[in-house]
Amino acid sequence: MGVDPGLSATGYGIINVAERQPLLVEAGVLRSRDKDPLETRLLEIHRGMTEVIREFAPTVVVVEELYSKYAHPRTAILMGHARGVVCVTAAQAGIPVVSYASTRIKNSLAGHGRASKEQVQRMVQHVFGLRQAPHPPDVADALAVALCHHNVLMHGCLSSPPVKSTAQ
């Protein structure tokens, strides 16, 4: 299960990797209302993630490593809250969490770590044989994270290992 944590929208993508070719099982987005207090929004993410985990029973949750653009530190902090909820929810269910840097995810799908969002979305579309790129972008990003982990397991596409932790 790949997850793209966000306070307003948390994308998730469930893929089946029993075969060499990954299959798209389910993808969606969990939304919180901007006007709600932070703790209410985080609780909504927790409830939504708990529901998805109960329904699909993933064996691993994969997220992007945290990074901060100095121009937008508040955004990084808020994303960190959402990411923390995702990690705690997975830990409560006994599911390991694996993290990859965004450049590793892009490299795994598009062949280089500086790929644009559009290039990554097109690769996700191509891998799953979709008529159009998954929408909203949070869903495409979650599927990209899941595909990155699949590629690492199947093909060893990364030069450095993933970070395995539920505390990141």
How does this structure look, described?
The protein is α/β, with parallel strands linked by helices and 168 residues long. It has one domain (2-164): 2-Layer Sandwich (Nucleotidyltransferase, domain 5), CATH 3.30.420. It has helices at residues 38-56, 73-92, 102-110, 117-128, 137-155; strands at 2-4, 9-16, 23-31, 61-64, 97-100, 163-164. Strands 3-2-1-4-5-6 form a six-stranded mixed β-sheet, with helices on both faces. The radius of gyration is 15 Å and the shape is globular. The model is unreliable at 159-163 (pLDDT under 50). Mg(2+) 2 binds at residue 64. GO terms for molecular function: crossover junction DNA endonuclease activity; DNA binding; magnesium ion binding.
